[in-house]
Design goal:
166 residues; mainly alpha; elongated
Amino acid sequence: MRAMALRTVARWLRIATKVWLVAGVTCGIGARVAMRVVALTDSTPGTVLTIGGTLGLVVFSLIATVPITLLFMTLRRRLIGSPFRRGLLFGAGLLGVAGPLFLTSGEIVELGIPALNAAMFASLSLLWGVTASLTLHRLEFRTRASANRGRTPDPVRLEEPARHPV
């Protein structure tokens, strides 16, 4: 019994880690694209796109999304609908909570086109939710399929189809 509980926890952690990595990296790259658009739409020459800056933003995104991933993994069964809809619902909730905090920061309001900036950065929470939900759905589907692969099917007598003369 105890071994089964440990396997269940290990499976949950494996899936949560994969969801966290995929959604966090996707959100980090999306944030980098949004920041680049902000820099290009700003009237003053600004930043240069570098690999180091992109990696730094992806690492920051991964660190910032650890608690969000744990919250999503905990609440995922309470969200209704398809995996895409569950992701949108969670992303919208995330936007409702965190949106006012980061959409009113100085750089988003002062640089480039503020309405475009707000839309781009707001969409990152929706992107995170959809990516996490679709990734989770796919991983759980694979886990169930691999668990069922080792089972033998119920014995069913297969009959050869009747042949009709042509």
